[in-house]
Known about the structure:
By secondary structure, this protein is of the alpha+beta class. It folds into two domains: 2-100, no CATH class; 117-166, no CATH class. It has five helices and six strands; from the N terminus they run αααααββββββ. A three-stranded antiparallel β-sheet has the order 4-1-6, with no helix packed on it. A hairpin with a 4-residue loop joins strand 2 (124-130) and strand 3. Helix 1 (2-22) packs antiparallel against helix 5, helix 2 (27-34) runs parallel beside helix 5 (80-100) and helix 3 (37-48) packs across helix 5. It is elongated. It starts with a helix and ends with a strand. The model has no long low-confidence stretch (mean pLDDT 85).
Amino acid sequence: xxxxxxxxxxxxxxxxxxxxxxxxxxxxxxxxxxxxxxxxxxxxxxxxxxxxxxxxxxxxxxxxxxxxxxxxxxxxxxxxxxxxxxxxxxxxxxxxxxxxxxxxxxxxxxxxxxxxxxxxxxxxxxxxxxxxxxxxxxxxxxxxxxxxxxxxxxxxxxxxxxxxxxx
Length: 167
């Protein structure tokens, strides 16, 4: 239940900062910075896998951060108001990334169901609802992937707490 509460807080604060930010900056900037959740998700996946990014991945991440910094500096030259909007929408995107690190939920499907597998960093039981609607519980070792076509990861019966849906 705690994980669901944390995810809800991330989502609510994400919406609040996004709505405040889009009123202060350009729509293109707001869209770009609001979509930084995928960047957070990629970094989180590397962290869970205990891996450093490859050379190409690191270069792509550095270029993305550099491009965002250039875009923000241009906004600051335009006006401090635009810069504040950029910062708010960037925070919204980061919070959305925290929300995307999904939590098991008995009532809601995964955001992009079905997934192709589930990574568990700490191991434990994972209860899923499959494409056919059947419920199954699997014991997943720490640091491994459960290959499955899951539509939902149930809170009831799931003991693993560090899960990432793989698409």
